[in-house]
Amino acid sequence: MSKDAPIGMFDSGIGGLTIAKALLQRLPMESLCYVGDTAHMPYGDKSPERLKAYAVGIAQRLLDRGCKALVVACNSASSNALDEVRDLVGPDIPVIDVVQPVVDAASLHHPHGELALIGTRATVQSGLYERLLSAQGLTVTSRATPLLAGAIEEGFHNGTISSAVVEAYFADGWAADKDALLLACTHYPLVVDEICALLPRRVAVLDAPGIVAERVASVLEARKALSSSTAPTRQFEVTDWTQSFADGAAHILGTSVDLVEAPWPEVL
Ligand code: DGL
User: Could you tell me which CATH class the domain 100-208 is placed in?
Assistant: First the structure.
């Protein structure tokens, strides 16, 4: 596999672009092939079986594009479909999820800490964070915040609507006495300012995109698979062309992207 082959990434929509942005800042010479499964957005209210089917379908698509590594840039898919994606991909191509790197960072920076977590229903109901964190001696209180990803995908961030939604989920103060908050959905970094405005300053909010980007860098470095290309490529695909994805991508990446619609052969 060529070192200059792209890194493949996917999410239901624009959320994974928060990871892509951090990754391109950390590894600017890497090529990227991103798929937003907008036809099936939101992932957060889907069953584990459906998430497995979507994730495996997209992973196959990214393999067909010749990707040298795969980033499951979605907590709902990482929590429910990682084994299936790894089984499909096999040992030669690394699969990096967004859960384990954040769990490791939480245990490093907040040993024996009491954490708060917000995520989609699919992520919270999987119980994966809870299992991994408690294995490292941390306790976590989780809350599903199902309105957030859809609102963010529709462009409601940094405004009164996102502030009101965030406030509805934090108003009872459940997270105020915790050591740190985990944003267990890749859409949520887009409303981190609204969240921080409601929490005491002592509650740390982990930088999940930066943490995951660092993990990708170390995995590729260990495999001697880092690119040194001077002409990296960026491909952005969606399974259903939406204006909100195009606008969101431009907002997150700071530049408009050439967005290709590549629908599923059949809708799952
Ligand atoms: N951004 C995704 C996640 O991390 C999915 C959000 C959704 O589609 O509900 O879970």
Answer: alpha beta
